[in-house]
Amino acid sequence: MSKDKAPRRPRAETPKGFRDYFGAEVTDRKAMLDTIAEVYHRYGFDPLETSAVETVEALGKFLPDVDRPNEGVFAWQDEDADWLALRYDLTAPLARVAAQFRNDLPSPYRRYAMGPVWRNEKPGPGRFRQFYQCDADTVGSSSVAADAEICAMLADALEATGIPRGDYVVKVNNRKVLNGVMEVAGVLDPSDPEKFAHERGIVLRAIDKIDRLGEDGVRALLGEGRRDESGDFTKGAGLSVAQADVVMGFMAAKRETGAETVARLRELVWQSTIGIEGVEELETIARLLNAQGYGPDRINLDPGVVRGLGYYTGPVFEAELTFEILDEKGRKRQFGSVAGGGRYDDLVKRFTGQAVPATGVSIGVDRLLAALRAKGRMQSDARGPVIVTVMDRDRMADYQAMAGELRRAGIRAEVYLGNPKNFGNQLKYADKRNSPVAVIQGTDEAARGMVVLKDLYLGARIAAEATVEEWKSQPAQSEVARDGLVAAVQHLLGQG
Amino acid sequence: MSKDKAPRRPRAETPKGFRDYFGAEVTDRKAMLDTIAEVYHRYGFDPLETSAVETVEALGKFLPDVDRPNEGVFAWQDEDADWLALRYDLTAPLARVAAQFRNDLPSPYRRYAMGPVWRNEKPGPGRFRQFYQCDADTVGSSSVAADAEICAMLADALEATGIPRGDYVVKVNNRKVLNGVMEVAGVLDPSDPEKFAHERGIVLRAIDKIDRLGEDGVRALLGEGRRDESGDFTKGAGLSVAQADVVMGFMAAKRETGAETVARLRELVWQSTIGIEGVEELETIARLLNAQGYGPDRINLDPGVVRGLGYYTGPVFEAELTFEILDEKGRKRQFGSVAGGGRYDDLVKRFTGQAVPATGVSIGVDRLLAALRAKGRMQSDARGPVIVTVMDRDRMADYQAMAGELRRAGIRAEVYLGNPKNFGNQLKYADKRNSPVAVIQGTDEAARGMVVLKDLYLGARIAAEATVEEWKSQPAQSEVARDGLVAAVQHLLGQG
User: Fold this and answer.
1) Nearest to B414 among A11, A43, A74 (CB)
2) A41 chain-B contacts, CB cut-off 8 A
């Protein structure tokens, strides 16, 4: 650690890519997390909170951008030589917990978790290096009923946060179908699963980028490679045109109804055992969801969804918001993905050597909040506290007593604690706090056993709109008896 | 980062000094944080959430144990050469925010914050390297009314979490009085504040350890130094016996009433301007609190409280729980400190060069939870979900529909998703989840439009207590019509 010998002052700055959250930004997110947790809990999931810090070996290397410095995590070496790192998601810690406590946890283990995760990535506009996730996972069930349940719960959670039906869709696909397509295209050999693994990785990431790169861009990545606008070249998977056709056909397999999509997928992968298994799983998921009333208006099959992470082994899902918002440049675009997940049957096995099936979902809470704000659907309570002003510095105890009475009646209230000399500053402060009411008691009012209440919201409206006559009559200001303070404030706040 | 070339499995372990929190451990803490936040909010404090990561230069070096490796923080070098670290408390980030946003924030700025903090310390029993704090601070008020308010709010917060009046005390002292004592003892020269700073640091830390070291231990540290049981020697402040007497006299200055304590302190520091200023601040705080009904049964003056941190400049306070608990070795001891704080007028100045007065408190939420648990005052809701068992694997959609109906009625419910073959395992699972009710529907019941409900709590009681006749009559099991499922479960849960 560098020693600052010079008396230079430290910079008052957040590190690059981090930010602070104030007031309603904090309470809005908390309300959303509480809402989602309630849904997860009602589905039988139990809370788990792991620490922010894990050993690097326990986290593993599963971030999509494997070529980033430090492999995408914030890591450091502990005194006893262990490498430690901040968690980059909530799934890797869960896999560690499922292995560590496998003899004590119920099986299946349904758990939910929420909290910040950290990514050592290049920060960009709206892209931070700390953000919140809110996950639910079922560990120890190989049944696709577990995947179906997660999809239904995701739909319920989105609706509970204020996304109405029709404004979102949960898209479901299956990695096994994709593996079947890979087999048909000749880049997966069931007798030697490691062969072509590198090529399949490129295919996977290429498909995942279809929204951004378009069909031509993906085709380039499936073939020799792609040169982007900056001139940088990304090496492709080296597939022939015929092979690429198979993959592209898979991505375009979505049909009007789930049944038609399933039929089309069956045509594509009928030669592949794993592919057909995947198609049948998709069929089962659709049937289970339909039986519970989760029709294609909420959850549907979409072969275009593959999810970037390498560890998925079966069903994968992604929730997209379907309404349009304006981007930074004022252009309309679909808001896009706010949640995703899937089945990862091998993550716990890393630790124990024994296969433990698992499936789960992660909701990107900060993105979901941004979406709700963009649609004007966040009703933040921005009302500040009642401000008891200080007219007479020696009577601080009286003012504190007033605030205390208001609080005991459940009203948010505080005494002005800045320098009370300039009364205008006190009202400016009340304004900045968005206070609804100021309480004023000078020596004169105190002697008469009275207090003055100033309705600051009404006052602001009058200042903006009133005629001189209305203004002079001071309708926003009233004098009430000191012992009627609480009732009078309650009345002004509409609680009377 | 080291590359694991060998196919060794990663260890499924939390890093040393970290732990996981399950189920009620998570929800109990959340409930406590919510309760405290509500009190803070009612007092007019606004939420602030800073990121876990700060630059090392912004954090500064204010941890009490300055001689620890890495100076007590987890730190690493970012790509652009900035040193970053996990915050070790919530005060340092607040000082950074107050400086960074000084033109936008209201002044005074009352804020509360909660979340984990990290200390790179040697872990010990019950001592973790990540723990929760829940802070409230007022930045920009030099009035001791701000300190008094924080003390009152701390008392309210403790009572709100379930600590009854009489089981806690908020002790208040003032660093200025201590400085006055230092002046009288000849280790503070008002004309050269830096002189003897090292000695004063030793005195401060020695006083803070009175509970652990006793009077003799503290005297040794005030003088030449102290050799502990392990043989390690800590160098002392080098005070003469007469000087040490002055300091020890200060620590023993507590009297029956606040007024007597103030009088005694006045005797001790009458030669010191700063000391008398401190005594008068204590008097004002006591007067303000008494006027609001916070008498010495809740908040009292105690010269024994100094707080270890070097940055305090005025009033300091500490909340102690006064009831006894049994320690690890079964010995009775007082639970001790669960919260502390004070005035720190120079922390923001580090950044801006301008003095910004500030005061605040931090509640150690994990310790407070441990105290409530030790006293049996946590009423955790440990009830698990209703379990819909799977008798017929092909009718999963029907079972899912039952769980869905229960959930829509607000009942926590889930379908068993493990291998359904062995029905005993399903009931064992329900037992492990602490489920109140199991729902059972085999082919036979389905054909008759019925379901069986098993009251698992009653069942467990009967298994433990019943006679053979009672047992045979199976009072814990009942058959109800499928379309009366929700009502029947509600009835069993006592919601009917």
Assistant:
1) A43
2) 412
CATH code at B387-492: 3.40.50.800
**CB-based contact A293:A274 (threshold 8 Å):** no
Residues of B in contact with A74 (CB under 8 A): 53, 76, 84
Say if residues B196 and B188 touch (Cβ distance below 8 Å): yes
The pair of structure tokens assigned to A394 is 């020696």
Instruction: Determine whether the interchain pair B4/A57 forms a contact, defined as Cβ–Cβ distance below 8 Å.
Output: yes
Q: What is the pLDDT of residues A390-401, one digit of tens each?
A: 999 999 999 999
**Which of chain B's residues have a Cβ under 8 Å away from the Cβ of A292?**
397, 400-401, 404
A404 touches chain B (CB under 8 A): yes
Judge whether A316 and A172 are in contact, CB under 8 Å: yes
Helix (H) or strand (E) holding A46: strand A46-49
* Spatial distance between the Cα atoms of B484 and B362, rounded to a whole number of angstroms: 51
> Contact, B305 vs B162, CB < 8 A?
no
Q: What is the pLDDT along chain B (496 residues), one digit of tens a residue?
A: 444 455 688 999 999 999 999 999 999 999 999 999 999 999 999 999 999 999 998 988 765 544 444 578 999 988 777 889 999 999 999 999 999 999 999 999 999 999 999 999 888 777 899 999 999 999 999 999 999 999 999 999 999 999 999 999 999 999 999 999 999 998 888 888 888 888 888 888 888 888 888 889 999 999 999 988 888 888 999 999 999 999 998 888 999 888 899 999 999 999 999 999 999 999 999 999 999 999 999 999 998 888 766 788 999 999 999 988 877 778 887 888 999 999 998 889 999 999 899 999 999 999 999 999 888 877 777 789 999 999 999 999 999 999 999 999 999 999 999 999 999 999 999 999 999 999 999 999 999 999 999 999 888 888 777 777 766 677 788 999 999 999 999 999 987 6
Query: Could you say which residues from 99 to 118 on chain A have a Cβ atom under 8 Å away from some Cβ of chain B?
Result: 99-101, 106-108, 110, 116, 118
CB contact under 8 A, A288 and B400: yes
Q: What does the domain layout of chain A look like in residue ranges? A: 24-374, 386-492
pLDDT in tens, A152-167: 999 999 999 999 999 9
Antiparallel, parallel or unpaired: β B332-343 and B358-364: antiparallel
Residue numbers in B near A43 (CB within 8 A): 385, 407, 412-414
Among the partner-chain residues B118, B138, B351, the one whose CB lies closest to the CB of A12 is B351
Cβ–Cβ gap A57/B10 under 8 Å: yes
For B387, the closest chain A residue by CA position comes to A44
Of A74, A83, A100, the CB nearest to B12: A100
Using a CB-CB cut-off of 8 Å, the residues of chain A touching B489 are none
Question: Alpha-carbon distance A420 to A418, whole Å?
Answer: 6
Query: Is the distance from CB of A111 to CB of B20 less than 8 angstroms?
Result: no
| Domain range A24-374, its CATH number among 3.30.930.10, 2.60.40.420, 3.30.2000.10, 2.60.34.10 | 3.30.930.10
Complete DSSP assignment for B345-374: TTTTHHHHSS---EEEEEEEHHHHHHHHHH
Question: Which one of B53, B283, B343, B390 would you mutate to disrupt binding with A, by most A Cβ within 10 Å of its Cβ?
Answer: B53
Q: Is ipTM beyond 0.95?
A: no
Q: What is the largest CA-CA distance in chain A?
A: 95
What CATH superfamily classification does A386-492 receive?
A: Anticodon-binding domain (3.40.50.800)
CB B262 within 8 A of CB B280: no
**Which residues between 79 and 98 in chain A have a beta carbon less than 8 angstroms from any beta carbon of chain B?**
79-80, 82-84, 86, 96-97
